[in-house]
Specification:
168 residues, mainly alpha, Arp2/3 complex 21 kDa subunit ARPC3, 0% strand, transmembrane, membrane, transmembrane helix
Length: 168
């Protein structure tokens, strides 16, 4: 089996397990609910099949939905960010994306932060909109998106820093 495939399978399982075991139990001040499992979509290899990304994103969201009893909200949010990911990559990385020369882990800190922030906040906004399903709660939705998104971005940056292997 290809090393990249094995690496992605292990990342999928690890992120789902820590989401279910640790981060689903965090609800700080009613606004902070971290969802670092989106890191799987962020770190999915750039040149790989887009249909595979959409399918695995759906499986990722569906798996989290099954354990959160959330009725498909995570699956919808994951598929949405997987769908818009190529356009965000192209707008942030430009020609490097065109030539498949982008690795999020090796990108500059500013580009990496911008990419992760856009995907995480899009995911969280859609997730909390679907959770509330009421536009009269827009202030609550925006607060929850802001605080949870900021904490999730911080966790994603920490995970990338801790688990990125420096090769010489």
């Amino acid at each position: 089996m290809n090393n990249s495939i094995t690496h992605n399978i292990l990342r999928f399982v690890f992120l789902v397990l820590i989401q279910i075991a640790i981060f689903n139990n965090i609800n700080f001040l009613g606004y902070i609910n971290p969802y670092p499992y989106v890191l799987f979509i962020v770190l999915f290899p750039i040149g790989d099949n887009r249909a595979l990304l959409l399918f695995t994103s759906f499986l990722l969201g569906l798996t989290v939905d099954m354990f959160c009893n959330s009725g498909g909200m995570h699956a919808a949010s994951c598929v949405t960010i997987a769908y818009i990911r190529p356009w965000i990559l192209q707008s942030i990385f430009g020609l490097a994306y065109e030539y498949n020369a982008v690795k999020v882990v090796k990108a500059g800190f500013g580009q990496r932060l911008l990419f992760i922030t856009i995907l995480v906040f899009t995911h969280h906004l859609l997730l909390f909109l679907l959770e509330s399903f009421n536009f009269s709660d827009i202030i609550y939705i925006l607060k929850k998106t802001l605080f949870s998104g900021a904490f999730t971005v911080l966790l994603c940056l920490i995970f990338i820093t801790l688990f990125s292997v420096k090769r010489r």
